[in-house]
Design brief:
Layout (H helix, E strand, L loop, with lengths): L2 E10 L2 E11 L4 E5 L6 H8 L17 E3 L4 E4 L11 H12 L5 H14 L15 H12 L6 E5 L7 H14 L4 E5 L3 H7 L2 E6 L2 E7 L6 H9 L1
Parallel strand pairs: 3-7, 3-8, 5-6, 6-7
Antiparallel strand pairs: 1-2, 1-4, 8-9
Helix pairs in contact: 2-3
Length: 229
Amino acid sequence: MAVELQHINKTFGAQRVLRDVTLSIPEGQVLGLLGPNGAGKSTLMKILIGLWQPDKGEDANGDKAQVKVPQNIGYLPENNPLYDEMYVVEYLQFMAEMTMREAGRKDRVARVEELIERVGLTPERHKHIRALSKGYRQRVGLAQALLGDPDLLILDEPTTGLDPNQLAEIRALIRSLGRDRTVILSTHIMQEVREMCDRVVILNHGEIKADKPIGEIADLEQLFREATH
């Protein structure tokens, strides 16, 4: 299912955080969401996952807000909260019970085992989460976000704090995830967008300032500077 946002506005008090955001993301696309601090990226992601609702009513042009997203969404927040005292496999099995309520125990166990292998956690499966490196913690967060086999995967700064080897591995993993689902990747790292994304959307002051396929962008840094100044 595609993601469709039409005429999205969001205001907090006197501050308008999103301004008439209209965006269509087809199924199977990896979209990079770029923007400086305060651009509205986090607000847009919270609307996508249903945590916040856009402003109601019509805007100045009489347009009404519409949000169409898949019901099955996986989300990896920037701070990636985990239960440090649990073992990796124990934690994922616990989260599978929470997110796969309709599945039987055998199906939940099989899904956890499949994801442990897919995200490269097999050597760490019996370690306490508190003992994991940042890279492996991110893998646990990705596995959790994928438990329900989501149609839409939203990742907020998924590679922050990783070393070069971890960066390459996580980027390759995220790219592979985009083959069979829609992925929205919020980041401030240009190289990540070039390496992982099919398309980039640049937000500034709550508005979309650029929206282009990666293959049509000769200089992403220049485009970012032009869109945010």
